[in-house]
Specification:
The protein is 28% helix and 35% strand. By secondary structure, it is α+β, with helices and mostly antiparallel strands. Strand 2 and strand 3 form a beta hairpin.
């Protein structure tokens, strides 16, 4: 198993909050497709795009324990969420040297 961590914004780049129904639908999809998730907390950060524009975000950090062979499906899913969440990019971190156990 691998651990995938990604950040989903609480606000669109326009400053409007992401509707609760949208976040609930995403969470439901994570359960159906990958069996569950953890929200590891709220994180704040900033990044600069290739045009020099700086974006500041408050995001929820999601973590999934998943099979390595499902990683491409997660990447495709997150690419699709860029449109839903009106984002230029979604941060994804993959840890494949972890020992994950469900006790």
């Amino acid at each position: 198993m691998i651990k995938a961590s990604f950040y989903l914004p609480e606000y669109f780049n326009t400053g409007r909050p992401v509707p609760e129904r949208v976040m609930r639908r995403i969470q439901d999809e994570l359960i159906v497709r990958w069996g569950g998730f953890t929200i590891a907390g709220t994180v704040r950060g900033a990044w600069r795009d290739e045009d020099g524009r700086v974006y500041q975000d408050t995001s929820l950090k999601f973590e999934l324990a998943m099979r390595a062979e499902d990683l491409d499906d997660l990447r495709a899913y997150l690419r699709g969420l860029k449109d839903v969440l009106q984002q230029k990019a979604i941060y994804l971190e993959v840890s494949d040297q972890v020992n994950i156990e469900f006790l």
